[in-house]
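Hi W., the KG4 complex you wanted:
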Amino acid sequence: MLILGIETSCDETAVGIVEDGRVLRANVMASQAAIHSPYGGVVPELASRQHIRDMQPTLERALADAEITLGQVDAVAVTHGPGLAGALISGVNTAKALSLTLDVPLIGVNHLEGHIYAAWLAAQGASPADEPGFPLACLVASGGHTDLILMEGHGSYRLVGRTRDDAAGEAFDKAARVLGLGFPGGPEIQKVAESLERLERDVLTDDDLEQLAAPLPRAWMRGTLDFSFSGVKTALLHRAQRTGLYPDPEPDGAGHDFMVASLAAGFQESVVDVLTAKLLDMAQRYGARGLVLGGGVTANARLRQRVLAESALPAVIPPPVLCTDNGAMIAASAYYQYQRGQVDDLSLDVDPSLPFGAPLAEAMAAGE
Ligand code: KG4
Ligand code: ZN
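Structure:
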């Protein structure tokens, strides 16, 4: 079964083609990063308009990559939430038009469920459902969400932890803005953090070096599996102000690059520390058999390294290109929905705040 997946919830126009929920046939993205970069964040109006421009060429490239024609597509899947309303509408309307004209099923997919199913594309051989097997402890960390989700089977999710303020990706993006780095901030922070070892530190005084090396705070939110990233973001801002990096940095000044790299590395370490610890804690508390990571932040090299090094359980971490937004994960997720008979009709609407995973308290009240 060939499913075409469309993803336009934020700033990537993405089309993927997946065979039988596991085999990646095409995965094409048109990034809008250059358009939003001057603003340091996604401008919804610009995103919606750019999706309209990029949709057709992206679709054509995906079909060419998969070496199929539209007539061979068996079902059309699309992200219908959560995300930016105007951006979602362009994908959903394209999917409806294709479903109608090709006379194939239309499957609306939750973006967060899609991020989890990228693991099914990443795992070679046995599927994560068989090896390591359910229940799976899933971390979905993106620009809009930081959720810990217990996946007990296909389509069965409990939300056991979430951020109480900023999402991890949002915090990376804001931190990058404070440090004068580009957008999206996550990859930029990672890149400069990795450059730290190579930079000259002698230009700074011992006092400065000591200030820079002091760890940034971690919000442990003890007794819960929830996150909070606003504290570390504010601490970074204050340190950038004290070291003169914000609001008027001197990019040619002595030690500028070292200071930026040092703060970026400290920030990354703080976020990665909490994400890793809470994911492992959750896996233990709920007796998970394995870990699944998804969402743009899980493309982070340091996070991947820490999780792999510290987890006694097997972890499925998709390659970075499947962690960030893509259409293939939507097609993969749709395949399992289709197996459960979850198909939509042309009344499918967008839902910018589409919920995902029954909160644990509700699940318990319902006697599950
Ligand atoms: O899942 P995603 O592509 O889009 C949303 O659903 O939001 O996630 C985008 C987020 C951005 O905030 C971006 O800065 C972050 O993922 N991100 C990263 C990395 N690559 C992307 N954060 C940390 N390290 C990375 N390498
Ligand atoms: Zn995403």
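The first helix runs from residue 33 to 36.

W.
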